[in-house]
Amino acid sequence: MKAIVVTDQAAGTAGMRLVERPEPQAAINDVVVQVHASGFTSGELTWPSTWTDRLDRDRTPSIPGQELAGVVTALGYGTTGLSVGQRVFGLSDSYRGGTLAEYVAVEARNLAPLPGDVDFTVGASVAMPGLTAWQGLFVHGRLQAGQSILVHGAAGAVGSMVTQLARGAGAYVIGTGRTADRQKAVDFGAQEFVDLENDALEDVGGVDLVLDVIGGDIAKRSAAVIRPGGTLVTIAGPTEARPAGGLAIDFVLVPDRAQLGEIVQRVRDGRLRTNIGNIATLDDAVAAFNPTKRMSGKTIIRVRP
Fold first, then answer.
1. Domain boundary among 234, 250, 266
2. How far is CA 201 from its chain centroid?
3. Cα torsion at 162, 135, 301, 94 (round to 10°)?
4. Higher-scoring residue by pLDDT: 114, 219
5. 133 in any annotated domain
6. How far apart are the C-alpha atoms of 38 and 31, rounded to whole Å?
7. Are strands 2-5 and 30-39 parallel, antiparallel or unpaired?
């Protein structure tokens, strides 16, 4: 099968290569999926799990990519809940990756059924950002109707999902980003926008929740705009900043079939729109992940026509 592999951590996305690899086999509780569309997060190439296994042994050449949508072609021993021929979407384990390929073996519990009226590119594009937004808002942030939330990177793949889900839950949403991101953030539902290049973040006033995808100085400054007892949720790693009398939570998403089902239902009924910036073929994937200009939205690889 054709697959993208990486062998050189220092090279980043420039070290990606399209090669022939053996097709994967289904282990216990696995399914093999014929990949129709897949996604990739550039941060994957900085994760130890891309380069070593859980015992810290080198596992290169490794196939990156965690997000996928496709069709089940084989079941491993003991696998239940899915069937051969079923359309599915979801995430692979970060220590396995492998979705930038024509086939991938994935734990069945990491996948959810993909309805026939949802395109594979859409399924692949909502799995990672959708779960990140859902868990950040409702599991860790415990967002309630009537609360206010500051969403960093509101025009990005994750931020746009956060904005839409928060609005749908009855929250007041303030988005942030670069000057050029203002209209896109508003289009996705932000009721106010803070231009981080020109506006003072500290002028926002008090919000109940901040969902941060940036980290560093922005995360630290964000704690100051949270009401006493509020919450700072970040996916950018631990932060020293903490809201007065409140919580600072950094988390790593976990695959969840029920949450994926909630997300795809919102896509079907029009409450959730994808944020796809570019669709490329597997043959053109290396170039797509090394763009000559800044891309807005998520890059999806359409593995099969």
1. 250
2. 25
3. 150
4. 114
5. no
6. 16
7. unpaired
